Amino acid sequence: MSMKEIDLFIDESGNPGRGRGRYFTIACVAVDSINTKRVQKKMKKETLKIKQNYPNKNWRNGEVKAASLRKEERASLVSKIVQTPISIYYITIDKYNIREVMFEDKSRSYNYWLKLIIDNVLADNTDCLAMNIYIDNRNTKIASGNSFDDYIHIHVQMDLVKDINLNVKYLDSHKSFGIQIADFISNGINLRFMNQNDIIYKEFNTIYVCAECFPRKNFGK
Prior knowledge:
Largest sheet: 6 strands, mixed
Distance between the termini: 36 Å
Helix content: 25-40%
């Protein structure tokens, strides 16, 4: 069913630069705004359980990051989260097969890739009147060079000719359980491509997933 007000939580896994692995993933967790509190409450509950299992561990800013857990623990948490009403949209970039210019201006590249995700969300939700986009603050080094806020407003209003109330906010991930969910989702997706390991990705099979592989023609070749 088409959502009229959508909350999008964005995070990434991998590195958009030349080194550190072949794949880079941007993941978006889409939630009908009426369900956002419920979804974030579930994430809060599950991360609290993990902290209780590691009473002596020092969690930076109190946040449970996917990279700090074993794969089996990540998969278990994701299996609980997908029981809530969320959808997943993502794009995975094959850095071996993109043009050199995309490394030279990572801000523009990041904005473009994120735009492709937004396009897919809007294509699935034609009745959307409002969209709130929440991005991890640590990603501002990439996204702020060429303002994503301005970029996406112009694209939606001028290119897509849609009258949508758009809000883009940058949050500290330890203050947003929605972004923390996106961290686990993006981690699981990138693990699938980097290591051919589906232990986390297979937990997505009960919910809607819209996948984008870039570049489409040469991805993975």
